[in-house]
Model the fold of this input.
Amino acid sequence: MNKKNHLVYLGVSGFPKGLAAIQRQLLVSKGLNENEWDITILCSGSVHQKESNIPKEGTFEGIYFKYIFSPYREENFFKRNIQKKISIFFELFELIKLNKKQKIDAVLISNTNIFWYAVVIFLTSKILKFKSVLSLVEIYKSRTNIRFFKRINDTLFNKFGLYFFDAYFPISHQLIEHFKDFKLPYFYFPVLVDGKKFDKIEANSVKGINYVFCGAAGYPKTIEFTIKAFEKVNIPNATLILVSNGSYEEVKKIKLLIQNSPKNTSIFHEQNLGEYELYEYYKNSTALLIPLFSTVQDEARFPHKLGEYLASGNPVITCHVGELKNYLTHKESAFICSPNNVLEFAENMQYVAVNPEFAKLVGEQGKKICKENFDYLVLGKQCSIFLYQLIKNRK
Done:
């Protein structure tokens, strides 16, 4: 490590393998690393299976990472839960060690609303004299399906949480509006994309109609919506590919949704794909699907996969919800439907299949917008300037 400033990234485990949260972590880190920042990623959780072959510490695409315990999920139930309870203390010890080795200038915490953790980071930042920044990608509000103590936590965080940080990175303008009363410095950090990775992938001459959806198995409502829309598409031999990772129980629910569909022989489930395999699916799709709903959470989100979808150059079918409204226009740069409307979503899937030349033009315009607004190097440079200003007057 020999650059001028040092940032430690906390709050999400799994690096360097994983979907949206890990990919965002990687691109934020690479963008800053290209602009004279040393990055250390600390993973406090052990989440991988042993066959994933991830070292306890190493370097990936120029970014140094370290697991506090092990990369691999502890099979013993009691050991696994003990690790969860004590991980915060080991994380603090690692911060102290890192600070002695190379002064920490800033700590970036991946999306979280855990109130007590915000207090701990605040106290640690005062002792070690670094700036703390919170990356926010969603709103935790009106979550009625969670336990009582978590609802209390949500209330505390929404009212007081950001007071314990020096700045934050909102992913959408809805989040800026939601937290405006805190009057905290922020850097607007939308979705990020490394477009060069897609340029290296050749599009194969895939025959037939091929719809692709990528999303976490923990959101079965979105996957069920996608399946129902596909069922209404009247295109012979069309296929739907669902790329979805999750726990055993979550994946089991997805497989059951497929099994119960009248089009089950045309729906395929993929999981644990490598990055190149995933991007190949994107590059060779007829259309890429990303349903959104008219909820507080979706209004504040800006799905990472939307950027990847757009970068592929293929048409995207989504809903008129949240941050994407500021960038995309229906039948110009994407196909945009009303939220919660399965029939309208299906009609756009049908339209793309019947009008492939026009759909491809829309996809190319979406790719252009992506390149102009979501390039990780451009955003990394802008973020670097913001962080320099933040730490400049550090006491």
User: Anything to note?
Assistant: The radius of gyration is 21 Å. The mean pLDDT is 91. The first strand starts at residue 5 and ends at 10. The domain at 5-192+375-392 is CATH 3.40.50.2000 (Rossmann fold).
